[in-house]
Amino acid sequence: MSASIVSRPCLAAAAASRARLVSRAARASTASSSSNDKLHARAHPIQVRGLAQIARAKKGGFMAEMEEAKAEESGAKVEFTLPLAIQKYPHASLRNDNKIVGVFDSDLEKLAQAMFKIMYDTEGVGLAAPQVGVNYRMMVYNEAGEPGRGKEVVLVNPKIVKFSKTKDLFEEGCLSFPKIYADVERPTSVQVEAQNLRGKKFKMTLDGFEARVFQHEYDHLDGVLFHDRMTDEVRGTVQGELDALIEAHPANEPKGV
Ligand SMILES: [Zn+2]
Q1: Per-residue pLDDT for 14 more than 50?
Q2: For this UniProt entry, which residues form the secretion signal (predicted)?
């Protein structure tokens, strides 16, 4: 969210976007596997990298279980330095592996508070830890995008246990991709399991804009970025801006891409 729309997400989306969400849901596309096929056909190395991340995310269940078991043994504690800074594409932290959080202490709470602050300061509605260079499986969001309004949600080690078959298109933005907005197709509803800041496990079902914000941030935890999920046609409309970001931050380009 740094995927976001009106109030840019990392997910900057806002009221106008919500209206579009509703209208687009009406003509909801049956999302096909064709977008992934098209991604495969595309040889651009950065997109190929994104594809690999998506493939890993798809078989993620088992791997995530293994990583979780490992983390429970090792008790991975978050490490970060303040103040946080939003990392822009193509910074390597956006494609790195993200560790399962195993220690639920006051530092984790401090990280969540710092993430909310920088999210509000940059007019986002959601933020994933790798976007601030902290490679752990944690995200924060507030659909309202303003402190004191809406509901602040912190999800640690989230997992998607079920997707709706219904999908829709929505214009997303991302705090790691300044001023780039484009349509991305996603399921309209997801069932999620996660832990809170004290490590307590819980389940919830998300719909509408909240489901959109959550899925954008969740992708960040798997190293998947929103342009990885755009169709070739849509990505073509922002390719020049993506290339400009790479040119503007050449030192950030991850090795092996
Ligand atoms: Zn984002």
Answers
A1: no
A2: none
Q: How far apart are alpha carbons 176 and 165 in whole angstroms?
A: 29
Distance 107 CA to ligand 1 centre (A): 23
pLDDT digits (tens, 9 = 90+) for 63-119: 666 665 555 556 689 999 999 999 999 999 999 999 999 999 999 999 999 999 999
Question: Which residues make Cβ contacts (< 8 Å) with residue 33, sequence separation at least 6?
Answer: none
Q: What angle separates helix 60-74 from helix 45-58, to the nearest 10 degrees?
A: 80
* Domains of the chain, earliest start first: 15-252 (3.90.45.10)
Q: Which residues are catalytic?
A: 217
Q: What's the Cα-to-Cα distance from 207 to each of 39, 129, 140, 164, 204, rounded to whole Å?
A: 27, 23, 17, 9, 10
**CA of 197 relative to ligand 1 center, distance in Å:** 22
Sign for the pseudo-dihedral over CA of 88, 234, 61, 196:
positive
Question: What token pair was written down for 28?
Answer: 């909801």
Instruction: Output the CA 65–ligand 1 centroid distance in Å.
Output: 24
15-29, 191-205, 213-227: segment of lowest average pLDDT: 15-29
Please state whether beta strands 189-195 and 201-207 pair in parallel, antiparallel, or not at all (unpaired). antiparallel
pTM over 0.90: no
Identify whether the C-beta of residue 225 lies closer than 8 Å to the C-beta of residue 48: no
DSSP 114-154: HHHHHHHHTT-SEEEGGGGT--BSEEEE-TT-STTSS--EE
Q: What mean pLDDT is reported for the chain?
A: 82
